[in-house]
Amino acid sequence: MSQSIPMTLEGYQRLQEELKKLIRVDRPKVVQDIAEARDHGDLSENAEYDAAKDRQGFIEGRIKELNDKIARAQVINPAELDTDKVVFGATVTIFDVDSGIEVTYQIVGEDEADLKHGKISVTSPVGKALIGHKLDDEVRIKVPSGLRIYEIIDIKYE
Length: 158
Hints:
Shape: elongated
Helix content: 25-40%
Number of helices: 3
């Protein structure tokens, strides 16, 4: 798993903040919760203890996952890109030929994807299909609801 993981600076910083919180806040809290649950006596029938141990396992797994992703991160600043094609980090406005709807998406890493905020993963069907295309290109994208035809009407790197 030594493959680099592309992400924006914002996404990288978000992962670092989550890791910091897990290590400084969540981990000590769950250790304290386990100690308190132990004080209640018989561990074989102690639901609080079991829940705290499960939470500890989750936290430790997430810390390991975040450390790995941060170590393999390839931070890309879209503002430094100079291209006329859609690449990772681009903010792309597309026009749906069938519905007449115009939408804008920023193409980001998997951990940053958030459709409500207009961020789609570079590995999503739409993200993959847009990569490499230029302004005014017509892009045919197979999505779960069928084949969609989009026209790229704007590409920004900010």
